């Protein structure tokens, strides 16, 4: 089964699966509850236009094409989760949730039930099988387009049924050239970006319609009031613009959001230097393939940590502990501070090119200041 987003990557991935001799069926996921939604430039995805583009690609490839309506599950698993996470003062990654719960849970589950062997997608990532036949997730050949980060939530079983035909492609330009040579109309279609269910890119305005906002205080790391805000939930760690502070900083330099406390309805701001964190703690730990030996022993292991899809990985020492709730937690000490990390983001852990697994950040802090000083 080829997951057809309507973009150039999924179209070429499906074409390569056909060339490899597989029996391929194209499926487009209808995720929007607004069927009249139209794509604007490179914003958004999963629109009527994308569905039509996916159909045209399947027609050129000579493979069957279906549209599956996953809009209800998408709303529950991705959109509602996004709102609830922001309401709790965290910064979620909806693309991770979509890959985890829709594209590689709901879709793969249905595909296997229907007798398919694997789901093929246009992600830039690689599945390598070890000597014992176990799948491992690795970075793609083109690190600039590598998407292994957003696939870090995949399990051993899911990787066993996943195909990424673009894994060894050296560049996106080559994919576009191949699409054009195959007569695929999406060859020069712009990449989608931003959050697909917020196509205008105004996340704050979108959230304000769904989360009750109450005016509260903006304070500095010592607890001094710097101004007021219309609602803490609409802010994100690292944010600089839109703070509208009434009291200027003593050094005249801009301030950034350091922490959000929705229960107290406070936004804590401070100098840019305090955005650098060196200690991360993640919950909801999962392993991409079989877990490493240290996962069960609590021993420290060397790794690299990445917290954004296109962020730079940072060397770290990590270990897995059992939390107060009896569930595993991953704690990582960064050898080099990372800037502007927020609870709710996903921490993906690598060794070399291999993705070991991931965890959802519950704590991201700097040893340079004590958050408990804010009362």
From TrEMBL:
Residues 283-360 form the tRNA-specific 2-thiouridylase MnmA-like C-terminal domain. The lineage of its organism: Bacteria, Bacillati, Actinomycetota, Actinomycetes, Micrococcales. It is an enzyme of class 2 (transferase). This is tRNA-specific 2-thiouridylase MnmA. Belongs to the MnmA/TRMU family. Catalyzes the 2-thiolation of uridine at the wobble position (U34) of tRNA, leading to the formation of s(2)U34. It comes from Paeniglutamicibacter cryotolerans. Its EC number is 2.8.1.13. It catalyses: S-sulfanyl-L-cysteinyl-[protein] + uridine(34) in tRNA + AH2 + ATP = 2-thiouridine(34) in tRNA + L-cysteinyl-[protein] + A + AMP + diphosphate + H(+).
């Amino acid at each position: 089964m080829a997951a057809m987003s309507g973009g150039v990557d999924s179209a070429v991935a499906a074409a390569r699966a056909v060339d490899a001799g597989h029996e391929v069926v194209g499926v487009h996921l209808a995720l929007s509850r607004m069927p009249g939604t139209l794509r604007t430039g490179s914003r958004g995805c999963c629109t009527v236009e994308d569905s039509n583009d996916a159909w045209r690609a399947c027609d050129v490839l000579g493979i069957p094409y279906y549209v599956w309506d996953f809009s209800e599950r998408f709303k529950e698993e991705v959109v509602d989760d996004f709102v609830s996470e922001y309401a709790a003062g965290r910064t979620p990654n909806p693309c991770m949730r979509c890959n985890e719960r829709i594209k590689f849970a709901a879709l793969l589950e249905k595909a296997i039930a229907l007798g398919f062997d694997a789901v093929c997608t246009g992600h830039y990532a690689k599945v390598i099988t070890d000597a014992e036949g176990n799948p491992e997730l690795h970075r793609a050949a083109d690190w600039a387009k590598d998407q292994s980060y957003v696939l870090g939530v995949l399990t051993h079983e899911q990787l066993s049924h996943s195909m990424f035909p673009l894994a060894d492609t050296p560049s996106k330009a080559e994919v576009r050239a191949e699409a054009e040579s195959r007569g695929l109309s999406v060859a020069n279609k712009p990449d989608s970006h931003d959050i697909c269910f917020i196509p205008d890119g105004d996340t704050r305005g979108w959230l304000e319609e769904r989360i009750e906002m109450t005016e509260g205080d903006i304070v500095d790391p010592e607890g001094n009031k710097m101004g007021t805000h219309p609602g803490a939930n609409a802010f994100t760690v690292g944010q600089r613009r839109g703070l509208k502070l009434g009291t200027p900083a003593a050094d005249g330099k801009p301030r950034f959001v350091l922490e959000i406390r929705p229960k107290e309805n406070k936004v804590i701001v401070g100098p840019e230097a305090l955005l650098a964190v060196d200690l991360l703690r993640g919950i909801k730990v999962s392993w991409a393939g079989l877990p490493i030996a240290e996962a069960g022993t609590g021993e420290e292991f060397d790794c690299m940590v990445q917290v954004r899809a296109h962020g730079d990985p940072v060397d770290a020492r990590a270990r897995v502990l059992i939390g107060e709730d009896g569930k595993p937690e991953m704690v990582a000490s960064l050898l080099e501070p990372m800037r502007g990390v927020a609870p709710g983001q996903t921490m993906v852990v690598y060794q070399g090119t291999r993705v070991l697994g991931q965890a959802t950040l519950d704590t991201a802090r700097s040893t340079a200041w004590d958050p408990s000083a804010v009362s």
